[in-house]
């Protein structure tokens, strides 16, 4: 797709480009002011470098923002060929389609709308439901975190907003598809709010029209779970292997609320994700499942924080990565326990399986505990695929490629067992099998 790249007379992500961007927008005044403040922050900051702990293992020298153009809202076209994986055979309660950071279609089952559920374009909802959006938008991700967060806060084009009122249960999954054309940009934001006792399941997948597609995605995810709410959130990142992917993701969990968060990262040339779960109410619970699969010269970094700010909370993070060729993963996990957060139960683990002598996995778990009477554990493992297992399978008639696929599937089985959504388990299994290179 080339239509988004024909803006030859337009400037990029600079002062004139920002001014033209604001002129095209139809935003409430409060959003415009937030954009201007964030743009000032963006201009005042430099790009992250090796002096920043979160970035010291990441090489940004190949990233050039001036290669990409801000999307023009008047030139929206559908990205053709982007695959959808998570919803085969699933009866949906609503869906949103985004193309290059702009919503192109949205729907919600009328029975949920009648109960006060809001699900649709973030830009539209910021106008139609201004009080709700203003209360939560960019309250967890501050623009001063780094230059990527500042740019996203200043020039996000659209996104998705889900609001579920008190005690309303959405018993069908909601699906979000974010497609990015080759060489295009996507600056989008996801905002999810569940009031007390509400429940929902959200399936979000990001994809490109082909494995070789490029582009630049800079995004944010904010999730607010109030007391006794329950959210199942799945994110599948499958950008083309020439794409750059930067994201900040936050969840704030209230008293006795629960989030089950599944992440699968398989695409992009380079990906850096900052993920945090903030347990702010007594009895809050979070379970995070992470699947990373890299090949070629891919580099994927996940910096995760489980922050316990209240007593009697539980957090469980499990990340597993399989690496091929000359790819690299970095996982830096931290459990933080604030003063007074007694009876904390925190767990984090990262396991890595290397299918090549040239692949590299960096695993850095950590603890910062400022309370007594807590149970916090962490661990990590890294190792090569067992040649004896491959030989055993081959002696039973399997090819080497089939043997490796079985070993990889078995490696991820612990993750699959923790996922409660059947369609997600099946889609991830198929995607992982597709990723394993042929070794015959």
Helix and strand element order: HHEEHEHHHEEEEEEEEEEEEEEEEEHHH
Helix content: 10-25%
Strand order of the largest sheet: 2-1-5-8-10-12-14-16-18-20
Quick one: how many beta strands? 20
Count structural domains.
Answer: 2
Q: Which radius of gyration do the C-alpha atoms yield?
A: 21 Å
Strand content: 35-45%
Overall pLDDT, averaged?
93
The N- to C-terminal Cα distance equals 35 Å
Q: How does the helix and strand content classify structurally?
A: alpha/beta
Q: Give the low-confidence spans.
A: 1-9
Total helices: the number is: 9
Largest sheet: 10 strands, mixed
Overall geometry comes to globular
SSE map:
Elements: H1 15-24, H2 29-44, E1 94-99, E2 102-108, H3 110-113, E3 118-121, H4 122-128, H5 130-136, H6 147-155, E4 158-164, E5 174-179, E6 185-186, E7 188-194, E8 199-207, E9 214-225, E10 230-238, E11 242-253, E12 258-265, E13 270-279, E14 285-294, E15 299-308, E16 314-323, E17 328-337, E18 345-354, E19 360-369, E20 375-384, H7 387-395, H8 400-418, H9 422-435
Q: How does this model look, in words?
A:
A ten-stranded mixed β-sheet has the order 2-1-5-8-10-12-14-16-18-20. Strands 3, 4, 6, 7, 9, 11, 13, 15, 17 and 19 form a ten-stranded mixed β-sheet that branches. The chain is an alpha/beta fold and 440 residues long. The two termini are 35 Å apart. It has helices spanning 15-24, 29-44, 110-113, 122-128, 130-136, 147-155, 387-395, 400-418, 422-435; strands at residues 94-99, 102-108, 118-121, 158-164, 174-179, 185-186, 188-194, 199-207, 214-225, 230-238, 242-253, 258-265, 270-279, 285-294, 299-308, 314-323, 328-337, 345-354, 360-369, 375-384.
């Amino acid at each position: 797709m080339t239509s988004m790249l024909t803006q030859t007379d337009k400037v990029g992500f600079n002062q004139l480009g920002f001014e033209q961007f604001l002129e095209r927008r139809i935003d409430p005044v409060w959003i415009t002011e937030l954009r201007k403040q964030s743009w000032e922050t963006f201009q005042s900051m430099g790009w992250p470098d090796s002096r920043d702990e979160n970035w010291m293992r990441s090489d940004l020298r190949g990233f050039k923002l001036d290669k990409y153009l801000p999307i023009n809202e008047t030139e929206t076209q559908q990205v053709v060929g982007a695959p959808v994986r998570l919803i085969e055979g699933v009866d949906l309660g609503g869906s949103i389609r985004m193309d290059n950071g702009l919503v192109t279609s949205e729907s919600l089952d009328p029975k949920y709308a009648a109960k006060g559920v809001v699900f649709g374009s973030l830009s539209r909802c910021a106008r139609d439901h201004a009080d709700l959006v203003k209360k939560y938008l960019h309250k967890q991700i501050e623009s001063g975190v780094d230059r990527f967060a500042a740019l996203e806060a200043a020039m996000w084009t659209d996104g998705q907003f889900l609001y579920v009122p008190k005690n309303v249960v959405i018993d069908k999954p909601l699906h979000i598809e974010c497609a990015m054309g080759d060489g295009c940009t996507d600056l989008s934001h996801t905002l999810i709010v569940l009031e007390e006792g509400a429940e929902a399941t959200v399936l979000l997948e990001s994809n490109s029209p082909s494995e070789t597609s490029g582009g630049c995605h800079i995004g944010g995810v904010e999730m607010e779970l109030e007391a006794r709410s329950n959210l199942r959130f799945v994110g599948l990142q499958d950008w083309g292997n020439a794409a750059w992917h930067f994201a900040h993701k936050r969840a704030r969990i209230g008293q006795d609320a629960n989030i089950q968060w599944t992440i699968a990262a398989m695409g992009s040339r380079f990906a850096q994700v900052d993920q945090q779960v903030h347990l702010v109410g007594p009895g809050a619970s979070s379970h995070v499942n992470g699947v990373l699969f890299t090949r070629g010269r891919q580099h994927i970094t996940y910096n995760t924080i489980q922050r316990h700010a209240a007593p009697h909370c539980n957090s469980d993070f499990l990340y597993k990565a399989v690496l091929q060729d000359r790819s690299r993963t970095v996982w830096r996990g931290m459990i933080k326990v604030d003063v007074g957060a007694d009876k904390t139960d925190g767990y984090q683990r990262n396991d890595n399986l290397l299918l090549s002598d040239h692949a590299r996995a960096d695993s850095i778990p950590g603890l910062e505990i400022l309370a007594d009477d807590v149970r916090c554990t962490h661990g990590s493992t890294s190792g090569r695929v067992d040649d004896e297992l491959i030989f055993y399978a081959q002696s039973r008639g399997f090819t080497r490629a089939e043997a490796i696929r079985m070993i990889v599937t078995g490696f991820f089985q612990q993750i699959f067992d923790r996922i409660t959504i059947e369609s997600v388990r099946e889609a991830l299994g198929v995607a992982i099998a597709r990723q394993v290179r042929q070794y015959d």
